[in-house]
Amino acid sequence: MTSKKKQKIEETTICPKCKSTHLNRDNYRAELVCDDCGLVIEENLIDYGPEWRAFDSEQREKRSRVGAPMTYMIHDKGLSTMIDWKNRDSYGKSIPTRNKAQIYRLRRWQKRIRISNAAERNLMIALSALDRMSSAMGLPRNVRETAAMIYRKAALKNLVRGRSIEDVAAAALYAACRQCHAPRTLDEISKIANIPRRNIGRNYRFVSRELRLKLMPTLPEDYISRFCSGLKLNGEVKVKATEILKEAEGNEITNGQNPISIAAASLYIASVLCGERRTQSEIANEAGVTEVTIRNHYKNLAEKLDIEITL
């Protein structure tokens, strides 16, 4: 991103759609969003970090920010060297044939050295599984890093011993989704990981208890954005559904209810009120609930909140 584009984003104070000045910079999703209409004004924003100045070459060398960042998604945190399988040097030139055998031996020994013991091998297998599941579910980077950190803590306390690596990895991913307010159901993770739902739930309860994870119950609002994206609904429907949920929570209507069902029902009401109607079958397929569930919950919400719906 160029400095001109960065300055343009910083100067953006008005929503181009509704002309609102209530803009929210979401650092978790790297987006600039309008709070009134829900329009994503900018995405993939870059955090340039604190500004600094260098007065000589020595300071410039010390304060240089280059190279790949440290990540918990790699068993050695991405700090070790790597010899690429492409037979080219740092300038992009082909390696001479007489040196290829030597490079092959160095590459083989470097691969052996990176994984020096059973603990690192365990981490490599688990983090690869985490990356595969996260990519299939389209989870953001902060969720992946949190899941990797939870698994590392579990491995450090020997909680993985006697248990399946992939089961604990799936449980760590489920806990990370709840911790980062990007919830996924056990059924979704079970389908992607190809692991029985009860195994993930059992390992999740064990890991969260042993690590003393402070996980709050999921809220219906956490599902609205994902359901709107899947149903291709505009920001007005999202804002309306959020308003319905806040009013329902204020009247204590959502207490003891399944958050997914409440979110789906409020989304159905909002789609009808905003003229972006989606059928109960479409919303049920997206939310993973039945049409009967949506029908019962939306009628209950409409009755208690005095919302008139014209079908």
List keywords for this structure.
311 residues, mainly alpha, N-terminal domain of TfIIb, Cyclin A, domain 1, 3-stranded antiparallel beta sheet
In short:
With 311 residues, the chain is mainly alpha-helical. It has 13 helices and three strands; from the N terminus they run H-E-E-E-H-H-H-H-H-H-H-H-H-H-H-H.
Q: Can you describe what's shown?
A:
The protein is mostly helical and 311 residues long. Among the domains are: 12-49, N-terminal domain of TfIIb; 118-211, Cyclin-like (Cyclin A, domain 1, Orthogonal Bundle); 221-304, Cyclin A, domain 1 (Orthogonal Bundle), CATH 1.10.472. It is built from 13 helices and 3 strands, in the order αβββαααααααααααα. Helix 4 crosses helix 6 (165-179), helix 4 (118-137) crosses helix 7 (186-193) and helix 6 runs antiparallel to helix 7. The longest helix has 20 residues, at 118-137.
Please give the structural blueprint.
Elements lengths: L2 H9 L11 E4 L4 E4 L5 E4 L13 H6 L34 H18 L3 H20 L3 H16 L8 H15 L6 H8 L3 H15 L9 H11 L3 H16 L8 H15 L6 H8 L3 H14 L7
Antiparallel strand pairs: 1-2, 2-3
Query: Biggest sheet, strands in spatial order?
Result: 1-2-3
* Largest sheet: number of strands, sense, barrel closure: 3 strands, antiparallel
Overall geometric form: globular
Q: Please state the average pLDDT score.
A: 82
Strand content: under 5%
Task: Give the helix proportion (percent range).
Answer: 40-55%
* Unreliable parts: 1-11
- Report the CATH topology name of the domain at 118-211: Cyclin A, domain 1
Rg measurement, Å: 25 Å
CATH class of the domain at 118-211: Mainly Alpha
Write the CATH homologous superfamily of the domain at 118-211.
Answer: Cyclin-like
Number of strands: 3
Cα end-to-end separation? 48 Å
Structural category is mainly alpha
SSE succession: HEEEHHHHHHHHHHHH
CATH architecture of the domain at 118-211: Orthogonal Bundle
Output the number of helix runs: 13
